[in-house]
Amino acid sequence: MILLDLEIKLLTPDHLSAILELDQACFGGLWTMDGYKRELDSPNSDLLGLFSPSTSTSLLGMGCFWSILDEAHITILAVHPEYHSQGLGQALLYSLIKTACDRKMERATLEVRASNLAAISLYQKFGFKTAGRRRGYYQDNGEDALILWLPDLQYSKFQKTLDNWYILVSDRLDKSSWHLLFK
Question: Which of 10, 22, 87, 91 could form a disulfide with 172 if both were Cys (CB 3.0 to 4.6 A apart)?
Fold first, then answer.
């Protein structure tokens, strides 16, 4: 089996058009170009992109978190619809959590649509627990958001958890003919 290379790297202003294309494909235009420019310029924002030289789509996925004190607040996790169910979301989530750990964040948090069962399942697989609910959080349809938390990122035992997730992610990607190049 031939494995296609994947690479996760920090996004830059050079990637803006690809970011907007992915946002449109995944969210129908959730954020504007100015919004993404602010993210890219902010020292408190990490915006990661998932790339493969072997595909026609330049940006396969992206993830973003804000550093707020000692918390990584995940704001975006998106995989191009053509590449769903191949482990790419797992790779991005792992990379966001690993980056948060490397930046000495103590915990991670996010909001997710209560109806987004696939995303909730992914987050739970990576240890996120439901901490609450924001009623009517999403402006487009008034849907509730679940607040999910992942604590203890700086505890020594969490490094073993990260190592296990690396194996989980790598195995899942292999099954879909991907190979993630971690840097």
Answer: 87
